[in-house]
Each structure stands twice: as structure tokens, then as C-alpha cells.
Write a structure and sequence with these properties.
Length: 435
């Protein structure tokens, strides 16, 4: 009794069965496939060689009359005898006075005019050229005539049969596939080029935006705005290219391969992530009113720093003069001659100078360069030391292209020089009066 379940189905028919006798036809399939490939390669090479022979005598061939041209074509490709063919091998119609016989210039077979195809001379040149881009031979129109009877205003053509046309079309498609990049690759290359262009511009724009937001005048605000607009257009191009890659092939009848669709989605996702990481993190630019205010605040801050520095230098000069006067009086009281100068005063001044520099200049100001510090240490006069330090500041500001600060530092240097020469003249006048 059959084993029937509640639904009325025989369960035994779903039980696993043993594998019966089997035979592999892989080798037979490979043999048939290899024979067909060999036949296609041989036939294709024959047609290309015959085309090369016809094109080798192109100048003479076009100058020949109808009878000589046919004789020349027969010498390259033997034609099938007319008496052996009564029916068209393609459509099966019987030849008559109204339905004439025509020969294929590639293989020599006979066909009727309706079953004839025509290979333009330009396409024939492309097929015989090595490694060049080509397009498939076009389907002939009903009024086209063969090369032996074409009109003067038409491009010369070779009459060929439909079988030869299929082989040449496959050859043209093969050459096109080797020499033409897929549309996906072309779009991705444009996408990569746009990303590289963006990465080359972003650092420059970031430096300009940071400088302008601090009130510096090293860059122009209008130029920075133009660069920002250029970046936004490039980001838009990247977005459009990634969207086009994502929708590639979806509107056609034959859907792309799942692997290709997955690749397109990954390209779109990476493009969106790149836009989020770079476009959304671009520093903003100040408006013209904000930039004017930032510039004025920066100039005022620099002026305050320079004024504090000048006042500190004058105070240090006053203290140094008091110390010198005290030393002079002490020496006149206890010693007949002035002793050699000690380095203690210089060291005290250098320590106080470093303290004043840190307090007045701060983390955002200039620091004395090693050369300027060495020259300043060699001078005992604090005014000369201060002028040497300011010269170092001016050099650093010029190297950083801070021209507004250079002007302020130069004004401060001129004030110190004027004060120094005034004091020198006053000291000399005092010496003269004592004498």
C-alpha cells in the first residue's frame, strides 16, 4: 500500500533515489566548440586577407572599367559558375531574367540582389587596419548598388553575401570590444579625475579660509570665494557622475550582471561618503563686513602688542640707566678706574627680556630668532638689544608674508632708533658739560 500523507500525496515519490548510469559529454562539447572556433578563425582570416588584397590595388581597382574590375576580383576570389546555381541559396527564389545572379566579392558564392549586402570601402579599411577602432558594417539600403556599378557620388562598396557579413560584423565587434572602454570604466575615470582635482584645491582653500577668518590680509576674499564656487561645482560633478554610474543599464531591456550592479552601488556609496567627509567640512568664509571687522581687530591687537613691547623696552632702558648711574657713582667713590664690565647685567636683562617677550608677544606673536638673540646678547645697551630683537621680528614677519605687521614693526624700530640717538646726544652733552 502506498504511503499517502494527509494531503493525498504519495510520500515515496519524494524519497531520494540512487544515481543511475551517467556519461560526461564535456570532452565532446569541447571538441565541437574547438572545431567551430577554428572554422570561424580560419574563415575570418580568409576574408581579411582577401580584403587586404582588394585594398592593396585600390587606386588601380577604382580606375578600371566594369569588365576589367570583375576580372581583377575573380583573380583574387574565384567565383562560382553561374550554370551550377539555379536558385538563390539564401531565399530559395529561382533566378530568371528579372532576378539576376550576383557574386560575393569575399567568398565567390551566388545570391540575388535582395539577399546581397554591401561593405563600404571605409569600413573595409578599418577592418584591415591593425588595432584601430572600428564600427560594424551597416545594413544596405534597397537602392544601393555594387562597387562595379555604383554612381560617382556614392562611396565605393563591395557586394558580399549575408554569411560573410555576419563574420565581418563579429570581427568588427571583437575589435571594438578590445579598443573601446566600457561606459562604466569611462564614467569611473572621469569620477576619479574630478576627485583628484578636488583634492588638489582643498588644501589651498582651507589655508585661505583660516587666514581670512583670523583677519589676515595675505589672501584676497574675492579670490577665495571664486575657489569655493569652483569646489562646489566639482562636488556637483562628482555627485552627478556617481548617480549616472548607479543607474547605468537599469533602463535597458537586458539588466546588468549582479556583480556589476553591486560594483555600481559601491561606487555610489563611496562617492557619497567622500562628499560628506570633504564638502561638509569645508571651512566657511567671512562676509566682507565680517572680514573688515576681523581685520580691524587684528590690527588693533597687533598695535597693542607693539605698544606694550615698546613700553616694556623703555622701562627696561630706564632701569638699566639707573643701574649704570648707580654703578658709576659707586666706582667713582671706591675705585680710581672703571672695572671691566661684568656679564651679570646682561644676563639679568636677557632674563627680563625673555619674560617681557612672553608676556607682550604671547603664543601668537613673534619670538626672537637665534641670530637676533645672539646679536642682542653681544650688545650691553638694552636699546640696541631691543632694536636687534625687533629686526628679527621683521625678518620673521616678511618670511610669513605678514606685511601689515612688518609695517608696524618698522614704525616701532624707527621710534626706538630716534629715542636711542636722542639719548646718545643727551649723554654726550652731559659729558661735555662735566668736562
Amino acid at each position: 500500500m502506498a504511503n499517502v500523507d494527509a494531503g493525498g500525496f504519495d510520500v515515496s515519490q519524494w524519497e531520494p533515489q540512487e544515481m543511475g548510469a551517467s556519461r560526461s559529454f564535456t570532452d565532446a562539447f569541447k571538441g565541437v566548440r574547438d572545431k567551430r572556433i577554428d572554422w570561424y578563425v580560419v574563415e575570418t582570416n580568409k576574408l581579411i586577407i582577401r580584403l587586404e588584397k582588394l585594398l592593396g590595388y585600390e587606386g588601380q581597382w577604382q580606375a578600371m572599367d566594369s569588365s576589367k574590375r570583375k576580372a581583377f576580383e575573380k583573380s583574387i576570389v574565384p567565383w562560382a559558375p553561374d550554370e551550377n546555381v539555379k536558385f538563390c541559396p539564401t531565399c530559395g527564389d529561382k533566378f530568371s531574367l528579372a532576378k539576376r545572379k550576383h557574386h560575393c566579392r569575399m567568398c565567390g558564392t551566388i545570391m540575388c540582389h535582395r539577399c546581397s549586402e554591401f561593405l563600404p570601402l571605409s569600413v573595409a579599411r578599418t577592418l584591415t587596419s591593425k588595432g584601430s577602432h572600428t564600427s560594424s558594417p551597416q545594413k544596405p539600403k534597397s537602392h544601393h548598388r555594387s562597387a562595379s556599378g555604383g554612381s560617382l557620388d556614392e562611396e565605393p562598396q563591395f557586394r558580399i553575401c549575408q554569411e560573410c557579413e555576419k563574420i565581418l560584423i563579429r570581427k568588427a565587434a571583437s575589435i571594438k570590444a578590445k579598443t573601446t572602454k566600457p561606459i562604466l570604466v569611462q564614467l569611473y575615470e572621469k569620477l576619479r579625475t574630478s576627485i583628484i582635482d578636488v583634492e588638489a584645491v582643498v588644501p589651498t582653500f582651507t589655508e585661505m579660509a583660516i587666514s581670512l577668518n583670523t583677519g589676515e590680509t595675505s589672501f584676497n576674499l574675492d579670490h577665495a570665494s571664486d575657489i569655493r564656487m569652483k569646489l562646489l561645482k566639482m562636488y556637483e560633478i562628482i555627485d552627478l557622475l556617481s548617480k549616472k554610474i548607479l543607474s547605468l543599464g537599469l533602463s535597458s531591456e537586458s539588466q546588468p550582471h549582479p556583480t556589476q550592479m553591486k560594483l555600481q552601488r559601491m561606487i555610489r556609496q563611496s562617492s557619497v561618503a567622500y562628499l560628506q567627509d570633504t564638502m561638509l567640512t569645508l571651512p566657511p568664509l567671512p562676509s566682507p563686513e565680517q572680514f573688515a571687522k576681523l581685520k580691524a581687530d587684528r590690527e588693533a591687537a597687533i598695535a597693542r602688542k607693539l605698544e606694550d613691547q615698546r613700553q616694556a623696552a623703555l622701562e627696561e632702558q630706564r632701569r638699566e640707566q639707573e643701574r649704570k648711574e648707580h654703578e658709576r657713582r659707586k666706582q667713582e667713590r671706591f675705585r680710581p678706574q672703571f672695572p671691566s664690565p661684568t656679564h651679570r647685567g646682561v644676563e639679568d636683562f636677557q632674563q627680563r627680556e625673555r619674560t617681557v617677550t612672553r608676556e607682550s608677544v604671547g603664543a601668537e606673536g613673534w619670538g626672537p630668532s637665534p641670530v637676533a638673540a645672539g646679536v642682542a646678547a653681544a650688545n650691553n645697551d638694552p636699546m640696541l638689544q631691543q632694536m636687534d630683537i625687533i629686526r628679527g621680528y621683521i625678518q620673521q614677519a616678511r618670511e610669513a608674508r605678514k606685511y601689515d605687521e612688518v609695517q608696524m614693526l618698522e614704525n616701532n624700530l624707527r621710534d626706538l632708533q630716534s629715542e636711542y640717538w636722542r639719548q646718545q646726544q643727551s649723554d654726550m652733552q652731559g659729558e661735555i658739560d662735566r668736562m
